[in-house]
User: Fold this.
Amino acid sequence: MPDEVNEVVEGVGYAVANIDALAEGPGFRKIRRALGVTAFGVNAIELPPGYETGRHYHDRQEELYFVHRGRIEMTFNDESTHVLGPGGAARVDPATVRKVKNVADERAVYLVVGGKGGYVGRDGRLPEGETSRFGPSASA
Assistant:
């Protein structure tokens, strides 16, 4: 079995990495730049215990937040709050004001993906002669 990836590795048509190798300590981990992503923005953010971000919104990009490690509380412009743990996800419209706070006693790491332009649709294809091991919907 190959070793687990712990740094950025580039190949023909792909790049892989571990987000912990992109930066040390709290703050942004620039995934888009490190992996050469061009279709959307993507960063991982590490927050120390009790730390909260400033409030912000966007002009055009919708964002998806995904909690990788820890627990975060998201507060929106209507003052509602929601706590997300590992595996938690939130979609936020561009104009919606949001703030994130680490509500755990450990560091929190979450991924933020932002984009504009719409859903591409189901364009996944199997290489010629191959069949899906998970049924027809697994390829899209």
